[in-house]
Amino acid sequence: MDRRSRICIWVILIGLGNFLTYAMLYMFIGGEAVNGSVRVTSEGTQYFLQSGVRVSCGVYVYSGIHSISIWITVGAVMLGMLTLAKERIVSSMRAAIVRGRTFITMLATIIAFTTIILTIWFILQFSSRLTNPQAAPPAAQQAVRNAAER
To answer: For 45, left (φ over 0), alpha (ψ -120 to 50), or beta?
Structure first.
Protein backbone atom coordinates (compact mmCIF):
# COMPACT_ATOMS: atom_id res chain seq x y z
CA MET A 1 0.00 0.00 0.00
CA ASP A 2 1.41 3.39 -0.98
CA ARG A 3 1.65 6.43 1.28
CA ARG A 4 -1.32 8.25 -0.29
CA SER A 5 -3.62 5.27 0.28
CA ARG A 6 -2.56 5.01 3.94
CA ILE A 7 -3.22 8.71 4.46
CA CYS A 8 -6.64 8.44 2.82
CA ILE A 9 -7.56 5.45 4.98
CA TRP A 10 -6.50 7.32 8.14
CA VAL A 11 -8.49 10.40 7.09
CA ILE A 12 -11.55 8.20 6.52
CA LEU A 13 -11.15 6.40 9.86
CA ILE A 14 -10.63 9.64 11.80
CA GLY A 15 -13.60 11.26 10.06
CA LEU A 16 -15.85 8.31 10.80
CA GLY A 17 -14.62 8.28 14.40
CA ASN A 18 -15.43 11.99 14.72
CA PHE A 19 -18.93 11.40 13.37
CA LEU A 20 -19.50 8.44 15.70
CA THR A 21 -18.31 10.53 18.67
CA TYR A 22 -20.62 13.35 17.60
CA ALA A 23 -23.63 11.01 17.36
CA MET A 24 -22.95 9.46 20.77
CA LEU A 25 -22.43 12.84 22.47
CA TYR A 26 -25.51 14.22 20.72
CA MET A 27 -27.58 11.50 22.38
CA PHE A 28 -25.79 11.89 25.73
CA ILE A 29 -26.12 15.69 26.10
CA GLY A 30 -29.49 15.95 24.36
CA GLY A 31 -28.84 17.91 21.19
CA GLU A 32 -26.46 20.25 19.47
CA ALA A 33 -25.74 23.95 19.90
CA VAL A 34 -25.66 25.39 16.38
CA ASN A 35 -29.46 25.22 16.21
CA GLY A 36 -29.82 25.95 19.92
CA SER A 37 -30.21 29.31 21.61
CA VAL A 38 -28.63 31.65 24.13
CA ARG A 39 -30.99 33.61 26.37
CA VAL A 40 -30.38 36.42 28.79
CA THR A 41 -32.60 36.30 31.86
CA SER A 42 -32.62 38.04 35.20
CA GLU A 43 -30.44 35.17 36.46
CA GLY A 44 -27.83 35.61 33.77
CA THR A 45 -27.03 33.99 30.43
CA GLN A 46 -28.51 30.56 29.81
CA TYR A 47 -27.52 28.13 27.06
CA PHE A 48 -29.97 25.76 25.41
CA LEU A 49 -29.31 23.01 22.89
CA GLN A 50 -31.52 22.42 19.88
CA SER A 51 -33.71 20.05 21.91
CA GLY A 52 -34.34 22.69 24.56
CA VAL A 53 -32.02 21.11 27.14
CA ARG A 54 -30.25 23.72 29.28
CA VAL A 55 -26.48 23.20 29.48
CA SER A 56 -23.41 25.02 30.75
CA CYS A 57 -21.50 27.48 28.58
CA GLY A 58 -18.63 24.97 28.16
CA VAL A 59 -20.92 22.20 26.92
CA TYR A 60 -22.67 24.64 24.60
CA VAL A 61 -19.41 25.88 23.05
CA TYR A 62 -18.01 22.33 22.77
CA SER A 63 -21.19 21.15 21.05
CA GLY A 64 -21.08 24.05 18.61
CA ILE A 65 -17.45 23.49 17.69
CA HIS A 66 -17.99 19.76 17.28
CA SER A 67 -21.05 20.41 15.07
CA ILE A 68 -18.93 22.66 12.86
CA SER A 69 -16.14 20.06 12.66
CA ILE A 70 -18.56 17.48 11.26
CA TRP A 71 -18.77 19.29 7.92
CA ILE A 72 -14.99 19.43 7.64
CA THR A 73 -14.58 15.73 8.38
CA VAL A 74 -17.45 14.71 6.07
CA GLY A 75 -15.74 16.58 3.23
CA ALA A 76 -12.39 15.02 4.10
CA VAL A 77 -13.91 11.51 4.18
CA MET A 78 -15.58 12.02 0.81
CA LEU A 79 -12.38 13.36 -0.76
CA GLY A 80 -10.40 10.48 0.76
CA MET A 81 -12.80 7.92 -0.70
CA LEU A 82 -12.75 9.69 -4.06
CA THR A 83 -8.94 9.60 -4.04
CA LEU A 84 -8.92 5.88 -3.24
CA ALA A 85 -11.41 5.18 -6.05
CA LYS A 86 -9.74 7.50 -8.58
CA GLU A 87 -7.96 4.85 -10.63
CA ARG A 88 -11.07 2.67 -10.86
CA ILE A 89 -13.19 5.66 -11.94
CA VAL A 90 -10.66 6.78 -14.55
CA SER A 91 -10.38 3.30 -16.05
CA SER A 92 -14.16 2.85 -16.23
CA MET A 93 -14.85 6.23 -17.87
CA ARG A 94 -12.55 6.05 -20.90
CA ALA A 95 -15.36 6.10 -23.46
CA ALA A 96 -17.75 8.36 -21.55
CA ILE A 97 -18.75 11.87 -22.58
CA VAL A 98 -16.80 13.29 -19.64
CA ARG A 99 -13.34 11.81 -19.13
CA GLY A 100 -12.61 10.19 -15.78
CA ARG A 101 -10.07 12.72 -14.55
CA THR A 102 -12.37 15.62 -15.49
CA PHE A 103 -15.23 13.94 -13.63
CA ILE A 104 -13.07 13.45 -10.53
CA THR A 105 -11.93 17.07 -10.64
CA MET A 106 -15.53 18.31 -10.95
CA LEU A 107 -16.72 16.04 -8.14
CA ALA A 108 -13.84 17.05 -5.85
CA THR A 109 -14.57 20.73 -6.54
CA ILE A 110 -18.27 20.27 -5.70
CA ILE A 111 -17.39 18.43 -2.47
CA ALA A 112 -14.86 21.07 -1.42
CA PHE A 113 -17.15 23.99 -2.28
CA THR A 114 -20.14 22.46 -0.48
CA THR A 115 -18.04 21.65 2.59
CA ILE A 116 -16.64 25.19 2.74
CA ILE A 117 -20.07 26.82 2.34
CA LEU A 118 -21.70 24.63 5.00
CA THR A 119 -18.80 25.13 7.42
CA ILE A 120 -18.96 28.91 7.01
CA TRP A 121 -22.74 28.87 7.40
CA PHE A 122 -22.50 26.86 10.65
CA ILE A 123 -19.74 29.14 11.98
CA LEU A 124 -21.80 32.26 11.24
CA GLN A 125 -24.95 30.75 12.73
CA PHE A 126 -23.17 29.62 15.90
CA SER A 127 -21.23 32.85 16.40
CA SER A 128 -24.44 34.83 15.87
CA ARG A 129 -26.14 32.88 18.65
CA LEU A 130 -23.22 33.52 21.00
CA THR A 131 -22.82 37.24 20.25
CA ASN A 132 -26.53 38.12 20.05
CA PRO A 133 -28.33 36.31 22.87
CA GLN A 134 -32.10 36.52 22.97
CA ALA A 135 -33.94 38.18 25.80
CA ALA A 136 -36.13 35.67 27.58
CA PRO A 137 -39.85 36.49 27.24
CA PRO A 138 -41.36 38.05 30.39
CA ALA A 139 -43.56 34.99 31.05
CA ALA A 140 -40.51 32.72 30.92
CA GLN A 141 -38.61 35.02 33.28
CA GLN A 142 -41.52 34.91 35.72
CA ALA A 143 -41.64 31.11 35.51
CA VAL A 144 -37.91 30.96 36.26
CA ARG A 145 -38.36 33.23 39.29
CA ASN A 146 -41.29 31.13 40.53
CA ALA A 147 -39.30 27.94 40.16
CA ALA A 148 -36.35 29.50 42.01
CA GLU A 149 -38.57 30.55 44.91
CA ARG A 150 -39.88 27.02 45.46
So the answer is: beta
